[in-house]
Write a structure and sequence with these properties.
- The protein has 500 residues and is an alpha/beta fold.
- It folds into 2 domains: 2-214, Rossmann fold (3-Layer(aba) Sandwich); 223-500, NAD(P)-binding Rossmann-like Domain (Rossmann fold), CATH 3.40.50.720.
- The protein is 40% helix and 12% strand.
- The chain is built from 18 helices and 15 strands.
- The chain has helices at residues 10-21, 33-40, 51-58, 69-75, 96-108, 125-135, 157-162, 174-188, 216-247, 251-259, 280-293, 299-323, 349-359, 372-378, 390-394, 407-410, 414-420, 435-440, and strands at 2-6, 25-29, 63-66, 78-81, 113-117, 143-147, 167-170, 211-214, 330-334, 363-367, 384-386, 399-402, 425-428, 444-446, 453-454.
- The strands form 3 sheets. It has a 7-stranded mixed sheet with strand order 11-10-9-12-13-14-15.
- The longest helix is centred in the middle third of the chain and has 32 residues, at 216-247.
- It binds nicotinamide-adenine-dinucleotide (NAD).
- The site of nicotinamide-adenine-dinucleotide has 26 residues, from helix 1 and helix 5.
């Protein structure tokens, strides 16, 4: 089928490449001309597994890029809208980009189009898109508007798109439903999965995708409700971690038992430094606004957001507990992306933590396998050093903070880590290591929802006492014992002026 996709961001680009992978002729349009020029040069603008391969496989054949919306509209039977829907000041979703695209489609429409809203939007958006098209002169018989929310996760977006838990089609017309079913046919009948060149999927070997057909309104709510539930699960486990810390229990053990209940499940039951990214924070705000506007009190959403915010403060308190004073401390930060597998730093809790630590006068040397370029754009210039690899980030550090759950971090050589650091202190916001292992490696280890461990024993009380401060604070004063080991990091990518 001839498909047009408006918006070449994380969703639009992945969806477009995957639809080409299913055999459709896809044109992706974006009003960001620089982005389009880069895509036309076959450059992949985001870090996403399998995406470069798909762009390579289908570029110049089934996949094309343009800034010309009108041309894209005229040649396409189906038009997916995947532009951003950021949060406004008051928390409501800014759907002005969607409206602008609707006006552009109306201006160019020449024959029947299925117009499919793929962005995450408040309920009634499809109705509004229809109204805008009519107001701008699009003849009623030339289009239908549907909702097809996207559930991909950054970091595994391509596999998620091609091996979805479900495909939700919110359609209010049979003609449009028929067209959309044809778009997704290779996933629903499983023919894609028998291809020898299919992108690998989850190990469980899914063979068909489940299609759920609803009204457009229900589809819009399914997306908001799904994200709200996931955020709620994260805030639940983070609150649970707080209780575990208070009573000296191990949240990982508790979650093993809780998640074994098939009604609950293990997924999203991992404590950390809170959720972030371009979706959950804004979608919760938007969903709460939808509820409020319609006279419904959805207090669970407020509590979920409150707990998430609190989780950042709890982590910073852990850093204080481990280091006592922060001014002038050299901290190695491992991870800046909001999650592993992506270079996306939008609403990343890691970035918030780095900013808070800079505010306390810390000196930060950071490493992230994918997100350093984007992080450098938002972090205060000259304030953060970016190391070329994880071990360079650790060299001479007073402590190491793990802020993103990149798998490689869990496989670090702990002996080398300890050797490189000035003090053997690890504050792990993602529970990447087991306390036993860290203790055996001689590291003082603070994680989330588990007892602290002291790999290095000190005369002062440590670990279980929340008023204690890890390695005796005086040991961390500048000029103390291992000061000679505070070598200037080698191979640092961007030098900056160290604060006094
Ligand atoms: P993004 O910001 O990465 O990309 C949006 C793109 O739309 C940008 O490239 C922008 O230039 C383009 N754009 C904006 N207005 C345009 C216009 N008038 N014409 C052409 N192009 C225009 O956003 P994203 O992360 O891809 O998210 C898109 C939508 O999908 C949002 O509603 C988001 O909530 C939803 N969503 C995102 C994810 C995710 O993981 N990122 C997952 C599911 C759903």
């Amino acid at each position: 089928m001839k498909i047009g996709l408006v918006g070449s961001g994380y969703v639009g680009l992945v969806a477009g490449a995957c639809l080409a992978e299913l055999g459709h002729e896809v044109v992706i349009v974006d009003d960001d001309k620089r982005k389009i020029a880069a895509l036309q040069r076959s450059e992949c603008p985001i870090h996403e597994r399998f995406l470069p391969e798909l762009l390579q496989r289908h570029g110049n054949r089934l996949l094309a890029f343009t800034s010309d919306l009108a041309e894209c509209v005229r040649r396409s039977q189906v038009l997916f809208v995947a532009v951003g829907t950021p949060a406004k000041e008051d928390g409501r979703a800014d759907v002005s980009y969607v409206e602008s695209v609707a006006r552009g489609i109306a201006a160019a429409i020449n024959d029947y189009k299925a117009i499919v809203v793929k962005c995450t939007v408040p309920v009634y958006t499809s109705q509004w898109v229809r109204r805008i098209l009519l107001l701008n002169g699009a003849p009623e018989q030339l289009f239908d508007v549907a909702s097809n929310p996207e559930f991909l996760r950054e970091g595994s977006a391509v596999s998620d798109f091609l091996y979805p838990d479900r495909i939700v089609l919110g359609v209010d017309s049979d003609r449009c439903a028929g067209i959309l079913k044809r778009v997704y046919q290779p996933l629903v009948d499983g023919s894609y999965y028998s291809r020898v060149d299919a992108i690998p999927g989850p190990a469980t070997g899914q063979r068909t995708a489940r299609l759920i057909c609803t009204t457009a309104k229900s589809a819009e709510l399914i997306k908001h409700a799904s994200n709200a539930f996931l955020a709620m699960k994260i805030s639940f486990v983070n609150s649970l971690a707080g209780v575990c810390e208070a009573v000296d229990a191990d949240v990982e053990q508790v979650c093993e038992g809780v998640g074994a209940d098939s009604r609950i499940g293990h997924r999203f039951l991992h404590p950390g430094i809170g959720y972030g990214g371009s979706c959950l924070p804004k979608d919760l705000l938007a969903f709460r606004a939808v509820a409020q506007e319609n006279g419904c009190n959805f207090g669970l959403l407020d509590e979920t957001m409150r707990v998430n915010q609190q989780q950042l403060h709890r982590f910073l308190a852990k850093v204080h507990k481990a280091l006592w004073t922060l001014k002038g401390k050299n901290l190695a930060v491992l991870g800046l992306a909001f999650k592993n597998g992506t270079d996306d730093i939008r609403e990343s809790p890691a970035i918030s933590i780095v900013n808070a630590l800079l505010g306390e006068g810390c000196l930060i040397t950071a490493f992230d396998p994918a997100a350093m370029v984007r992080a450098a754009e938002v972090l205060p210039q000259q304030s953060v050093r970016f190391a070329p690899d994880v071990y360079e980030a650790l060299r001479g550090a007073d402590a190491c903070l793990v802020l993103t759950e990149w798998e490689d971090f869990g496989a670090l050589d702990l002996a080398r880590m300890k050797e490189l650091m000035r003090y053997p202190i690890v504050i792990d916001g993602r529970n990447m290591f087991t306390p036993d292992r860290m203790e055996a490696a001689g590291l003082n280890y603070y994680s989330v929802g588990r007892p602290d461990v002291a790999g290095v024993r000190h005369s002062s009380p440590f670990a279980r006492d929340s008023s204690a401060c890890g390695v005796g604070a005086t040991n961390l004063e500048s000029g103390s014992a291992k000061a000679g080991a505070q070598a200037e990091p080698h191979g640092i990518v961007e030098p900056h002026d160290r604060q006094p």
